[in-house]
Write a structure and sequence with these properties.
The protein is mainly α and 243 residues long. The chain contains eight helices and no strands. The termini are far apart.
Amino acid sequence: MAAFQPRTSGRSLFSSQALFDFSHLDDRVQSHLKNVYSCLSIGMLSAALGAYAHLMFGLGEWYLLTVIASFGLIIWLGTTRHSKEDVTKRVGIFSAFTFTSGVSLGPLIEVVIRIDPSIVSTALAGTAVIFICFSLSALLWKDRTFLYMGGMLFSCLSWLTLAGLLNIFFRSPLVFNVYIYGILLLFSAFVLYDTQLIVEKRKRGDEDFIWHSVDLFLDAVQIFRALLVILAKKEDDKKRRRD
């Protein structure tokens, strides 16, 4: 009887090489994406420092000021032209923007920690998983399918924003749940859209990797915020039922 031999030829069910095969993207695009994700990593670290600064030094009373500062910094960054000479300056502006964004997240993180500190790490892990999986999906998808979602995504964002504003007055739990879960799903889809949009922009000559990092940073922050609220609400409901 012939010994059993595992099949080694043909297409395997899973290949780590296929998972990270970006050969369909030219070298310029791959280099640009490395710059984008490197800059995004700096922004994430800066935002984490901003949130930590809020928790350590109690910057809650400066919340409105940090929100205004965030808007001012993003406008400043948007009006500054991309050039090799100004890269350091623009990365500094971007880092300042992400830092103030992290400070603005501080009050929400502080409330969540009071409910259950482990929620923050769970939300971070969830955000990382969602962001990485959707980014890889967008990069491995060889056509531009996700670019056609733009109109629908922005329309949904407008409706969700309106629903969130109106619910300030109506205080409907149903509308709140639709809003917060909608934000989570919507910005997960925005990761797909923005990732493919960055690739397409680079193909057309746009080399502003710092500004492209802003789009992905905002997506990640909204996903993280939504997960914080969803997990905190579930944990708070459990505690109330036990009491």
